[in-house]
Design goal:
This protein is mainly α and about 210 residues long. It is about 55% helix and about 0% strand. It has two domains: about 80 residues, Helix-hairpin-Helix base-excision DNA repair enzymes (C-terminal) (Endonuclease Iii, domain 2, Orthogonal Bundle); about 100 residues, Hypothetical protein, domain 2 (Endonuclease III, domain 1), CATH 1.10.340.
Length: about 210
């Protein structure tokens, strides 16, 4: 790890702390899995509003597995892309009930074999449920990692591998948590608050503002 990378991580730790935080409300691993599926192209805040009633109505994995597609679509409509999400949630729940005895698997291969689960979703589960070092590449992580010069890639999988090379394992999960907050408060996609940024002197962004 370079001195520059170490300094970036030190400042992130000092500013945002080192506590593991999950922004999606859940009480069980399967609830988190469903919440992450719902979060695609949707804000965590909106997902939390939807799941507050959703997880009361479908309070077991079996209820999701046996859900009526049209009814579930209406239940999750406000998260967007509700047809695909509903179909994937039912299929995913059925697989978990039938093949995994209701348990959410822990390996990347098993998780990505589930309907609606890609690497990002799998890594959220691995990091938050199983505390297995994993890097979650969302829009904030991709954008800010490019601005910091950690990657030049646009493909999330390539970004993930680049970050695995430059970040120490003990910061893989933490980096995502910190960068989400950083991206929401300072390093916006448009009009970032560069003058308020505690990483400005270390930033390599071409659109950096003085």
């Amino acid at each position: 790890m370079t001195k520059r990378t170490a300094e970036i991580l030190k400042r992130l730790d000092e500013t945002y702390g080192t506590e593991y935080i999950c922004y999606l409300n859940h009480e069980t691993p399967w609830q988190l899995l469903i919440a992450v599926i719902l979060s695609a192209q949707c804000t965590d805040a909106r997902v939390n509003i939807v799941t507050e009633t959703l997880f009361k109505k479908y309070d077991t994995l079996e209820k999701f597995a046996n859900a009526d597609l049209a009814e579930l679509e209406e239940d999750i409509r406000s998260t967007g892309f509700y047809h695909n999400k509903a179909k994937n949630i039912i299929s995913c729940a059925r697989t978990l009930v039938q093949e995994y005895h209701g348990e959410v698997p822990s390996t990347l291969e098993e998780l990505t074999s589930l309907a609606g689960v890609g690497r990002k979703t799998a890594n959220v589960i691995r990091g938050n449920i199983y505390h297995d070092p994993s890097i979650v590449v969302d829009t904030h992580v991709k954008r800010i990692s490019k601005r910091l010069g950690f990657t030049k890639e646009d493909d999330p999988v390539k970004v993930e591998y680049d970050l695995m090379k430059v970040l120490p394992k003990d910061h893989w999960i933490l980096y995502n948590i910190q960068i989400i907050t950083f991206g929401r408060n300072i390093c916006f996609a448009r009009g970032p608050k560069c003058s308020e940024c505690f990483l400005q002197d270390l930033c390599k962004a071409e659109d950096k503002r003085k």
